[in-house]
Amino acid sequence: MREDPPVKWTDATRPVTGAVSLALRAERGTRRALGRRAEDAALAALDAALASRVGGEAVDRVLASDLAARAVGRALEGPLVEAVARDVVRYAVLERLSDGVLDDPALERLLASALESPAAERLLATALDSPAAERMLVRVLDSKLLDEAVRRALEGEELWLVVNEIAQSPAVTAAITRQSIGFADQVAGGVRGGSRNADAWLERAARRALRRPPASP
Amino acid sequence: MRDYQGLATRAIAFAVDAAIINLIALLVGVGVGLALSILSVSNTAETVLLACGAGAFAVWTVAYFAVFWSTTGQTPGNRLMRIRVCTDDGAVLSLRRSLLRFAALVLAALPLLAGFLPVLVDDRRRGLHDMLAGTVVVGPGA
Prior knowledge:
The structure holds 2 protein chains of 2 kinds.
Chain A: H1 9-51, H2 53-64, H3 66-77, H4 80-90, H5 93-98, H6 105-116, H7 118-129, H8 131-142, H9 144-155, H10 157-167, H11 170-209
Helix pairs in contact in A: 3-7
Chain B: H1 7-37, H2 43-71, H3 76-81, E1 84-87, H4 95-109, H5 128-133, E2 135-138
Antiparallel strand pairs in B: 1-2
């Protein structure tokens, strides 16, 4: 009687591994689908919150609160301002912004409404009164950027056209004339005062020499 | 009492007038000299021109003082120092009195300026030329 060949272990477990891998694939598919649904639901909830009146009011209240002012003040006192300024220059943020974004009318509307709010005014006052603003101003004044800007302004013809225009204006010429006349009058007044004193001194000396009594006042 | 003006104030006013007279004469002299330099002028003509120039300078000087004294009573130097030449009663000088005052001014300057010294001791601060012409020099309030 011929003996049957021995059964291999892999052949025996193949149905099981197949079933397991199928189950794992099903579980991953389900999880992915659930994750997408959850993300969609979260975004929809966020959109609804942003579009709602409550969301807008909440933002206004947060901006109007002392907490926001304190938070801005703390942030400006710290090294954050310097870091932001460095990064703005490093990543050419202003140049990128100017390429199109600044021409957007929506941005203009947004800025106008933000600037007109009392909260923005308070935040601005806090920012301007902070030591960080002072530090930033000092840095700007010490920077090469300012020197370069001044150099370019001085090299440009526009500045000298403006200077010429101002210098030739009737108000300026009248002021210079008044100033010159005032100065000449002041000098002449000084000479006159000195000469009056010299007159009196010479007369006293002459009358003493001639032994005559002083002139009556 | 009127505000009679003393020697130093009057001397400064006179110096300003002398500077103006000489500056204008110099400018005219330079202009005439440049014009004549391109012409060939004989020695005799040159002498005559010099005499004419001196005469013109004298006329210019006399006219300067006489016209200002007889019109406003103030030369530019007087105006700068805020003084005025007038008669004893405060009137503006006539042209004749102005010419007389200028001649007396020259007379007062001849003896080493001694004719001006009475200004120092006279009660109305008058020099020899003021006494001869019957004039006084007063301040702005007079």
